[in-house]
Amino acid sequence: MAHDSIASRLSALRHQLPQGLELVAVSKFHPVERLMEAYQAGQRAFGESRAQELAAKAQQMPDDVRWHFIGHLQKNKVRQVVPHAAMIHSVDSVELLRLIGKESMRINRVSSVLLQVHVAQEQSKSGFLPEELASLAASGEFSGVTGVRVCGLMAMATFTDDMAVVDDEFARVEELFRHLKHGPMAGNDHFTQLSIGMSDDWRIAARHGATIVRIGTAIFGQREY
Ligand SMILES: *Cc1c(COP(=O)(O)O)cnc(C)c1O
């Protein structure tokens, strides 16, 4: 049915998103033909969560696609991701940041990255704890790394129907973002992006200062695992 097409879902979403909010279409587990439908409807930013899948899709999709890597990044996959990613959202350790920087320098690039914050209740989700991130930033751990541009923060809320929990978690991320931006990261003009919000909670994220939302299901439908 026409109203179920990727193009029409995208267009409906774009009409609802506040101005200036960047939409990353999360295409993980969907075949390239589905991504091309979104591409033909004008979408250029896509999000993938696995190194191999990103590398394979980057080969098949047009060159002007901007790939966002949003999944947990293992150290041995850095080399596979860096050449393709316009932005890596999921930096969860200083060691990983350094490794991304080193690999980027090796291929003459500077990689844009976000620091992932852990605010959700699930232990399975990764990221820096907010206090940990604040103290690492205060001691300059992120500013001295070459080959990377630290562009802001990324977070996922707890997987729950209780929107008060989500609201509270996004509020904590927003507060941390402001604190860093006007405090320890004030010298970094690139530190401007807040990547929060998915299909079910992007409206809440938008109220908490999101600049990037990562939306999959609401565009492509359910993923098949
Ligand atoms: C899968 C995923 C999304 C998209 O989730 P939807 O609920 O399908 O919109 C967003 N961010 C991350 C980090 C993801 O892994």
Provide structural commentary.
This protein is of the alpha/beta class. Helices cover 38% and strands 20% of the residues. An 8-stranded parallel sheet has the order 7-6-5-4-3-2-1-8. Helix 5 links the parallel strand 4 and strand 5. It is globular. Pyridoxal-5'-phosphate binds next to strand 8 and helix 9.
Strand line-up of the largest beta sheet: 7-6-5-4-3-2-1-8
H and E order:
HEHEHEHEHEHEHEHEH
Q: Could you tell me the radius of gyration in angstroms?
A: 17 Å
Strand-pairing-aware structural class = alpha/beta
Q: How many beta-strand elements?
A: 8
**Uncertain runs:** none
Q: Estimate the helix proportion, in percent.
A: 25-40%
List the main descriptive attributes of the protein structure presented here.
225 residues; alpha/beta; eight-stranded parallel beta sheet; 9 helices; 38% helix; globular; binds pyridoxal-5'-phosphate
Describe the structure concisely for a colleague:
This protein has 225 residues and is an alpha/beta fold. The protein contains nine helices and eight strands.
Task: Describe the secondary-structure layout.
Blueprint: H1 6-16, E1 22-26, H2 32-40, E2 45-48, H3 51-60, E3 66-69, H4 78-81, E4 85-91, H5 94-106, E5 111-118, H6 130-138, E6 148-156, H7 163-182, E7 193-195, H8 202-207, E8 212-215, H9 217-220
Parallel strand pairs: 1-2, 1-8, 2-3, 3-4, 4-5, 5-6, 6-7
The protein binds pyridoxal-5'-phosphate (PLP).
